[in-house]
Specification:
By secondary structure, this protein is α/β, with parallel strands linked by helices. It has helices spanning 2-9, 17-31, 47-54, 68-77, 115-125, 162-171; strands spanning 38-41, 61-65, 82-85, 98-104, 126-137, 143-148, 151-157, 175-176, 180-182, 196-202. The radius of gyration is 16 Å and the shape is globular.
Length: 207
């Protein structure tokens, strides 16, 4: 479904000024982190990875995705950027090696019981003082898709409350910086089923 997803999401960020502002703020914080790489974890086809790169803050940004086909499409769409196969449960990166980590609508595919482990991995790979930014759909029940673009699939979207995400981040040793909740868009080219949530956090600075 990766090629269909490219077409489906093309132009989405251009239609969402709040999301662009949050990503710009994240990029500014990451750029102040001493030049360490920034990972877009669960990058899919790489559109947000490319957006961070295009912001012009000198970020050494690269993408991770679990799906080999998503990674292949990301490399085709954005040949100047780095994309690797990998799981957010085991990123295979050295401790404290990242100056920032973006999980933009990617933890929505992680089951509840595995989310604490993912956030612990985020804490491990972030340098002291480095930031993480999450984006996700708000809700209490998961949504399952069984078809997309004429393909039979089984794909879960785990909707969560910002307060629950914040609780789990704190449990992993990360400091929550804010919680943003916005109502769903019902008009325009990208109507939404649910409200949207955004939680930035950071690994505590070294004392």
């Amino acid at each position: 479904m990766a090629p269909g997803y490219v077409d489906f999401t093309r132009g989405e960020l251009e239609a969402k000024p709040l999301e662009r502002a949050l990503l710009s703020a994240f990029a500014e914080l990451a750029a102040a982190g001493g030049g360490l790489p920034v990972a877009d974890v669960g990058c899919g086809t790489g559109r947000v990875t490319a957006h961070l790169h295009a912001l012009g803050r000198g970020l050494d940004v690269f993408g991770f995705a679990l799906s080999p086909r998503m990674v292949a499409v990301a490399r085709e769409e954005h040949p100047g950027l780095r994309f690797d196969e990998g799981s957010m449960l085991d990123l295979g990166l050295p401790d404290a090696s990242l100056g920032g980590l973006l999980a933009w609508y990617s933890t929505i595919h992680v089951p509840d019981e595995e989310l604490p482990g993912a956030f612990a991995e985020f804490h491990r790979v972030l340098a002291p003082g480095a930031h993480v930014q999450l984006g996700f759909q708000v809700g209490d029940e998961p949504l399952r898709y069984t078809e997309a673009w004429g393909l039979e699939i089984s794909l879960y979207f785990h909707r969560r409350q910002p307060e629950r995400i914040a609780e789990l981040l704190r449990g992993a040793g990360l400091e929550v910086r804010s919680m943003v909740w916005r109502e769903r868009d019902t008009d325009g080219p990208f109507p939404e089923r649910t409200p949207q949530g955004f939680v930035p956090a950071r690994r505590p600075p070294a004392v």
